[in-house]
Amino acid sequence: MKAPTARQRDILQFLGQHYTTHGYWPSIRDIQAHFQLGSTNGVMGHLHALERKGCIHRIAGTARAYRIETPEGDIPAAPTPTSASPAENLLSIPVYGSIAAGYPDGLESSGIVARLQMDARTASVRHADKTFALRVRGESMINAGILDGDTVILEQGQPRDGDIVAALIDGQTTLKRFVKKQNTTPFLRAENPAFPDIHPVSELLIQGIARSIVRKLA
To answer: Which of 37, 134, 135, 162 has its Cα between 20 and 30 A from that of 106?
Structure first.
């Protein structure tokens, strides 16, 4: 892959930041205004160059939809806003601090520390009033594609075997995979062989089921 220029790296970062914040890609004029470029032709030139260099991939059959190639993998294409997708359909998802993706800890939520603006389809949730987000601390879920520093979108609900959940286990919180086999007590499993399974001594409460993640570009 041929390296992008400094300006192209800036545009690539802006694409990712805009997607993370809004849940959809910026328009050509959004990019032009942000970088104070003289014309939209300049924007298109940079986007075409990024495509040629393999940094972004246009999604066939859609407008303003890309995949960004990063060392961690692709950032998926967001749904393109249309007249059938008004702004009022965007969710304002509260971020309640962080959660350990390692050994459980007793740190409590510090309340709403931020909000994510995202449509329900991108967030993969059905009930806006049951949706919240937590920032991930730790590496116990890396084999599930959840990395330290990611923000995980969760929805309250009844977990099924294999769901990734935010759980309160014996008074401590953690992000793990929920395991429930027939005739056995449910327990939590990491997605990193360096971390053991966690079996509750007295209490296992599921606070939310992971639906999607948001990752910032480095």
So the answer is: 162
Length reported for the chain? 218
The CATH code of the domain that includes 205 is: 2.10.109.10
For 86-133, write each residue's pLDDT tens digit.
444 678 888 888 899 877 765 555 567 888 888 887 788 887 788 999
Q: Give the model's pLDDT for residue 89.
A: 61
Whether 140 sits among the annotated catalytic residues: the reply is yes
List 27, 83, 130, 140, catalytic entry: 140
Spot the catalytic one: 27, 98, 176, 212: 176
- Which residues, 6+ apart, have CB-to-CB distance to 187 below 8 Å? 179, 197, 198, 199, 200, 204
**pTM attached to this predicted model:** 0.59
Say whether 199 sits in a helix, a strand or coil.
coil
CATH number for the domain including 54? 1.10.10.10
Whether 176 sits among the annotated catalytic residues: the reply is: yes
The residue range of the domain holding 118 is 87-214
Q: Is 12 helix (H, G, I), strand (E, B) or coil?
A: helix
Number of domains in the chain: 2
- The reply to whether 113 and 192 lie within a common domain is yes
Say whether both 62 and 135 belong to one domain.
no
